[in-house]
């Protein structure tokens, strides 16, 4: 559990403290996720709701691995200009999906820590493995849908120049563009809100433990 706590600290720094990812934090995050996945295979680790959330958090870095490997392949073999633009947008959407999934899962872990600290008995029926798995799947599905919307918007932008002025594709382009812009704005403000909420939760937990 100490290793899992260190991993959580690393992930909090990577996603909720640093304003933007960098090569060092990304590399350490990938190593930490790989190590965590190996640890979670051990029979010594009991199946708890927090462990389920941490497992899903570690698996989210698969998106980063795919992005890194794909960039290396593109850089090594080279592709056309249009393909490069499409690939770059896809890989950026994968990194965005990883960030959003990680931030949401870290917030779930923080909320669970809050419940354990202040409402251990009352919240026991909520802190179940089943609910943790359902929460993780819901977060993944929502973020994948977000990523699909961003990709659709990128594809329509790429094909909008060749589409007729009054074709249905233009209407679809405007709708997806507005939806993607709104979702990006909401994601930005949600990210700020999650940072504030996480700081508040751990502030309360820290001073609660100090008083004890």
TrEMBL record:
<dbReference type="GO" id="GO:0004930">
    <property type="term" value="F:G protein-coupled receptor activity"/>
</dbReference>
<keyword id="KW-0472">Membrane</keyword>
<feature type="transmembrane region" description="Helical">
    <location>
        <begin position="52"/>
        <end position="77"/>
    </location>
</feature>
<keyword id="KW-0675">Receptor</keyword>
<dbReference type="GO" id="GO:0005886">
    <property type="term" value="C:plasma membrane"/>
</dbReference>
<feature type="transmembrane region" description="Helical">
    <location>
        <begin position="12"/>
        <end position="40"/>
    </location>
</feature>
<feature type="transmembrane region" description="Helical">
    <location>
        <begin position="97"/>
        <end position="119"/>
    </location>
</feature>
<keyword id="KW-0807">Transducer</keyword>
<dbReference type="GO" id="GO:0035025">
    <property type="term" value="P:positive regulation of Rho protein signal transduction"/>
</dbReference>
<feature type="domain" description="G-protein coupled receptors family 1 profile">
    <location>
        <begin position="32"/>
        <end position="212"/>
    </location>
</feature>
<keyword id="KW-0812">Transmembrane</keyword>
<keyword id="KW-0297">G-protein coupled receptor</keyword>
<dbReference type="InterPro" id="IPR000276">
    <property type="entry name" value="GPCR_Rhodpsn"/>
</dbReference>
<dbReference type="InterPro" id="IPR017452">
    <property type="entry name" value="GPCR_Rhodpsn_7TM"/>
</dbReference>
<feature type="transmembrane region" description="Helical">
    <location>
        <begin position="171"/>
        <end position="203"/>
    </location>
</feature>
<dbReference type="Pfam" id="PF00001">
    <property type="entry name" value="7tm_1"/>
</dbReference>
<protein>
    <submittedName>
        <fullName>CXCR3 protein</fullName>
    </submittedName>
</protein>
<dbReference type="GO" id="GO:0007200">
    <property type="term" value="P:phospholipase C-activating G protein-coupled receptor signaling pathway"/>
</dbReference>
<keyword id="KW-1133">Transmembrane helix</keyword>
<keyword id="KW-0325">Glycoprotein</keyword>
